[in-house]
Structure formats: C-alpha cells, structure tokens
Amino acid sequence: MFRNKLLFLVPVALLVSACTSAVKPPPVPPHAGAAVPAVPRVPASGVAVTLTASGVAAASGVQAAPSMEIRFAVAGDIMAHDSQIAAAYDKKCDCYDFKPVFATAAPLFKDADVAIANLETTLPGKNYSGYPAFGAPDSLVDAATMAGINLFIMANNHCLDKGREG
C-alpha cells in the first residue's frame, strides 16, 4: 500500500513542482519602450494594421527611414449564399450587382496600400449557388476590387466547389 501511495505521490509532486517553478522572463528588447501607434478602430468586418519601416527596423536592429509606411486592410471570407446571389440580381441589366455589399468597408480598403480578402467561393461563370458548393458571379470579385481589395486568397476549403474548371 505504501508503494501505491508513493507511485501516486511522486508524479503528482513532480507535476506540481513543474507548474509552480519560477520561469525567467525573456530579456526586454532595447526598443520595448518605443511608442507604438494605435491600431485604428475599424468595423468588425476587417482589420487595419499600419507597419512602419522604423518599427520593423527597431525590432530587427536595423536603421531605416521613419517615413516608410505600409497600410494593410484584411477581410475574412467573401462568399455568396443563394439568397445573397438572388438579392444582387438586377433585372434591368440582367446582371448581378454586389457593389452595395462593399460600400461600408470600401473606405477602409481604399485607404490601405494592400487590401487582402479570402475569396471563399468559386467563379464558375454560370450555375451560381451558395452552400454547400459555392459559385458566385464574377461581379462579386469586380465589386470587391472596385471597393479597393487588391489581393484575394483562395487557399480554402471551397476553392474546388465547382470542380477544376469552376
């Protein structure tokens, strides 16, 4: 019985001592006290981040011109369900108009140097559909581009929803 208690207590004691031992914090880099610009408030649909060459240089220890700046805007999934595709259809031109969808976020994207979004649909050219096999009109990307998005990521689980050709 003593052996069983010992076999239980030793691992527990080792676990407790490992969890409570003091960990030495990493050294503070020399640029840690430098002022970091606040990230601007943006709608929940996107995030804007400003990177400055001086901030990157400070992190790497390299001297750089402080005026160099790159602004990013990043958006999540751009896709269209059946109801959204139907709502974008305009009988007057027999076309799909997605421009109003991006109207609120367009200033954020246009203010950025690089605006990135995940295109979570295919562009099959016809037979449009929402979940589970997404396929949207090309005008969805046209509207996103007009709103200022200039880089689309397609490495996602819907990139082959309409097959290799879609």
Describe this structure as you would to a colleague.
The chain has 166 residues and is of the alpha/beta class. The protein contains six helices and six strands, in the order αβαβαββααβαβ. The protein has helices at 2-20, 53-60, 82-88, 99-102, 106-111, 139-146, and strands at 46-52, 69-78, 89-90, 95-96, 114-119, 151-153. It has a four-stranded mixed beta sheet with strand order 1-2-5-6. Strands 3-4 form a two-stranded antiparallel sheet. β5, α6 and β6 form a beta-alpha-beta unit. The longest helix is centred in the first third of the chain and has 19 residues, at 2-20. The protein is globular. Residues 2-21 and 36-45 have low confidence and may be disordered.
Poorly predicted residue ranges: 2-21, 36-45
How many beta-strand elements?
6
Provide mean pLDDT, rounded: 76
Gross morphology: globular
- Ends distance: 69 Å
Order of helices and strands: HEHEHEEHHEHE
Share of helix among residues? 25-40%
Radius of gyration: 26 Å
Structural class: alpha/beta
The percent range for strand residues is: 15-25%
Give the biggest sheet.
Answer: 4 strands, mixed
* Strand line-up across the major sheet: 1-2-5-6
List keywords for this structure.
single chain; 166 residues; alpha/beta; disordered N terminus
In a nutshell, what does this entry contain?
By secondary structure, the protein is α/β, with parallel strands linked by helices. The protein contains six helices and six strands.
